[in-house]
Each structure stands twice: as C-alpha cells, then as structure tokens.
Write a structure and sequence with these properties.
Elements lengths: L2 H11 L7 H21 L3 H13 L5 E2 L6 E2 L1 H13 L14 H16 L3 H22 L2 H4 L4 H18 L3 H14 L11 H21 L15 H6 L6 H5 L25 H14 L6 E8 L1 H6 L8 H4 L3 H11 L9 H4 L2 H7 L2 E5 L12 E7 L4 E6 L12 H12 L5 H12 L8 H6 L2
Parallel strand pairs: 3-4
Antiparallel strand pairs: 1-2, 3-5, 5-6
Helix pairs in contact: 1-9, 2-4, 2-19, 3-4, 4-5, 4-10, 5-6, 5-8, 5-10, 6-8, 8-9, 8-10, 9-10, 13-16, 16-18, 19-20
Length: 451
C-alpha cells in the first residue's frame, strides 16, 4: 500500500467510535471557537468584499454564509465562511501544521454537511478526519514546506478539507484518492500575503477547494491516484526532494490523533500565534514587577527564527500588518495590559504613543533549542528607567494545548465574538447545539441559527 492509498484508507474507514474522548472534546471546542470567530469576522472589510463577490456569483442556495442572510452554492459558502473565520486571525492553530487547521476544514464540513442534511455526529466525525489529515501532512512536510514560504493553512488545509468532504460523501477509497489528487492541484497560499486581506482569503480557498475536489471526484473526475508520493506530486513539489517524510504522514494517522497530541491551541489574542508567548512574558513581568509603560526604557525580545521570519512588519501601517508585528503587539500590550479586537483597527496602529513604545523594542532570532512541531518559546527582557533588568522566558503561551483556556474561557470568547452578529437567545442555543453535536440529528437547524 503506497502513501496515498494509506491516507485514503484512513479517510474512508475512520470512525468516531475509535477517537479518544479527549480528542472529541477538543474537536467540539475547536468547532465552537471557529464558529465564534467566523461570526466576529463577518463585520470585517475582507468579509464584505468576499461576501459581495459570492452574492454576485449567485449559485443554488444550498449553503449558509454565517452571520448574514445570504445563501449560495456549497463551494462558495465554504469560501465565504473560511475567509470570515480567518479575517481576525483569532482562530485556532496546531504546531504540526504550523498554521490554522480548523478554519481550513470546518467551513467545508459545514457547507457539505448542510447540503446533504448530515447529522451532527457525521459532521463531527468528518471534522476530526479532515483535521487529522491536514495536521499529519504538516508532521511529515514541515519545516521544509513552511520554510519555503507556503501557507500551510491553505496548502495542507485544502487536502484536509477534501478528506473531510470525501468522508461526508462516503466516497470509496478510489474516489477519495482522486479527490486528494484534485485538491492537490488547487493548493496554494504564500507567506508574502501575510498582513493583507489575501491571508484570510487563503482560509476560504482551502475549504472551497476541498468541497469542489470531493464533488468532482464523486462525479467521476480522475487525478493521479498516488499524488502524495508521485514524482512531481504534492510532497515533492511543496517540500523539495528528500525534505518530506511519508512515514510521518501516513504512519501517524490516528496514532495519536492530533487533536489529542500535540493538541489544540485556542487564541486569547487576535493576532499571529507567534507573538503570544512574548506577549504573555511581558504581561507577567508587568504584573510581577508592578511596572507601567512609562517605566520602560527598552525591551529586548528573542524569538525562534521561524517566528521572527513570519513577524515581518516592524513598522506596521495597517491593523492587518499589526497582527504580524511583534513590536506593535508588545507595545499595545504594554500600554493596555491586554490585546483586544479593537487594538487591530487601522487607526489604532498609528497612535503616536504606541509608535513611540515600538521604537524601544529590539527583536532578535534565537532558536532556544526549539524543534519543529514543538511549542515556540520566547524571551523578553525589560530594562526600566530606574536601572532594573527584568527577564522572563515563556516556553508556552496561554491558550495553547499545554496551557489551555478553561471551558468557561472558551465559552466567554464565543459569546464575545458571536454577539457581533447573533442575539443572546440564538447565541446560547447555538452554543448548546455544538456542545452536544454528536446528538444533533440534522446540522441544518444549527446553520439556520448562525445566519
């Protein structure tokens, strides 16, 4: 059995009965969190642009665009909802993927599930399958894949979305391989677009591609049935010859599930996860030493190289760029002792007081014994005006699997995000349905609540 055959076999035969309870709980937390950030993202400019495009394109009204009255075709619903889910960069992440797994998979699952009237159990199972495929591709393709400039959320997410949609459609192993091959030719997404509206679009393109690939395969479209291992195939093109490990991809499927280990990272701050450990370290220093912004002379920050590389905006001009600026995130945290959604409005980034604080922050790359697929540490050293030197290293960040948010905190984040679009009654009902998703007989009433 080659690698693509092994992956297809897993996609076809994986069942919720074989998934550990901890992974199921994690999956439902991921689904709740992702729906919440979709609803919050519906108010962002990029959401208006993409939703307007989807409305103009038309399509049979099979799929709900979250947070709106718009219904459209299944692939276009996945495109819109994926973009909404990443508009704020507030969605979850996973260290194996080195990206955002849920937002690349869940919109495909919701759109395809709504189209066929799937049960909540079927939706949950398909989500687990898609999440597992995209993250295990990351386990075997990173760091070469990510270091080459590919955005894993989109490239690997398209494959996870195709796997999830194929599972929901109950495609056989042969057609599932064709779906994977077709999705591989859709996959793209470049780091150079981080800090622009096209980055959240990446998270819409992945589930759109997955839904389309599975649908075309179901209709009889063929592709290379050995797309993972083929010369000029997915792994070789996206990593380079000799820079991927097929055994880590296929041999690791469900052994354990990625939702269990390394687990789910749910963001407490609406910015790139690579900033979070440093933000937590700075907030710890401020709390422990009792200092304010005016007490700080200089801040030195050490980040692992892969984090320093992605945090490319040293003097951001927009809120989107600010999400990928360690200088801005630390300056804003120094001023406000937290990072809220409003901190990443365009006008917030240009505040003179914050720009002055940014000039006091110096960043360097230091791998600090970091290994690919592991948590990304950060070190922060604050030099105060009265001569003190305050140092803190964080090997994990708040919200990560190693320091998870409580269920109450996850629900509070959902309420805060969803309240931008839903009234309190619909919000609470939606949260209740996700909490017992495996018992929901039909996903369509949940989707109606999210409109």
């Amino acid at each position: 059995m080659n690698a693509t055959e092994g992956m297809a076999d897993f996609i076809v035969n994986a069942g919720l009965d074989d998934v550990p309870e901890v992974a199921i709980v994690s999956a439902k937390r991921a689904i709740l969190d992702t729906i919440g950030v979709m609803l919050a993202g519906a108010s962002e400019p990029v959401a208006g642009i993409v939703t307007g495009f989807v409305r103009e394109m038309g399509g049979a009204p099979h799929g709900t665009v979250v947070g709106s009255s718009l219904r459209t075709s299944t692939p276009l619903a996945a495109l819109a909802n994926g973009t909404l889910g990443h508009a704020l960069d507030f969605d979850d992440s996973n260290y194996l993927l080195n990206g955002h797994p849920s937002v690349g998979v869940l919109p495909a699952v919701l759109a395809q599930g709504e189209r066929q009237g799937a049960s909540g159990r079927e939706v949950l199972e398909a989500f687990v399958v898609g999440y597992e495929i995209s993250t295990k591709l990351g386990a075997g393709m990173n760091p070469a894949h990510y270091n080459s400039g590919w955005h894993s959320t989109c490239t690997l997410g398209a494959m996870g979305a195709a796997a999830a949609a194929a599972h929901l459609r109950r495609l056989d192993a042969g057609k599932t391989r064709f779906a994977l091959g077709c999705a591989a030719s859709h996959a793209s997404g470049l780091h150079a677009n981080f800090g622009t509206m096209t980055k959240p679009l990446h998270a819409g393109l992945a589930p759109e591609a997955g839904v389309r690939a599975a649908g075309l395969a179901a209709a009889g479209l063929t592709s290379n049935p050995g797309i993972l291992e083929a010369p000029g195939g997915f792994c070789q093109v996206f990593c380079g010859e000799g820079n991927f490990r097929l055994g880590d991809i296929v041999g690791g499927l469900g052994q354990p599930y990625s939702l269990e280990t390394p687990g789910l990272n749910i963001k407490p701050y609406p910015c790139c996860m690579s900033t979070h450990a440093a933000v937590d370290a700075l907030l710890d220093i401020m709390e422990e030493a009792g200092i304010e912004a005016e007490d700080v002379d200089r801040i030195d920050v050490a980040l692992v190289e892969i984090a320093a590389k992605v945090l490319r905006y040293h003097r951001p001009r927009t809120g989107l760029e600010g999400k990928f600026s360690i200088e801005y995130c630390l300056a804003r945290a120094l001023k406000e002792r937290t990072l809220r959604l409003g901190a990443f409005a365009d006008e917030s980034v240009g505040e003179p007081g914050v720009r002055d604080l940014m000039e006091r922050i110096c960043v360097r790359a230091d791998n600090m014994d970091w290994k690919p697929g592991g948590r990304k540490p950060a070190e922060v050293t604050v030099h105060t005006r009265d001569g003190r030197t305050l140092h803190k290293r964080r090997n994990r960040s708040r919200g990560s699997a190693a320091w998870p948010l409580t269920q109450e905190e996850v629900q509070a984040k959902f309420r805060d995000c969803a309240a931008r679009r839903l009234n309190p009654e619909k919000l609470e009902e939606a949260m209740e349905k996700v909490g017992c998703l495996e018992k929901v007989p039909d996903i369509r009433p949940l989707m109606a609540l999210l409109a």
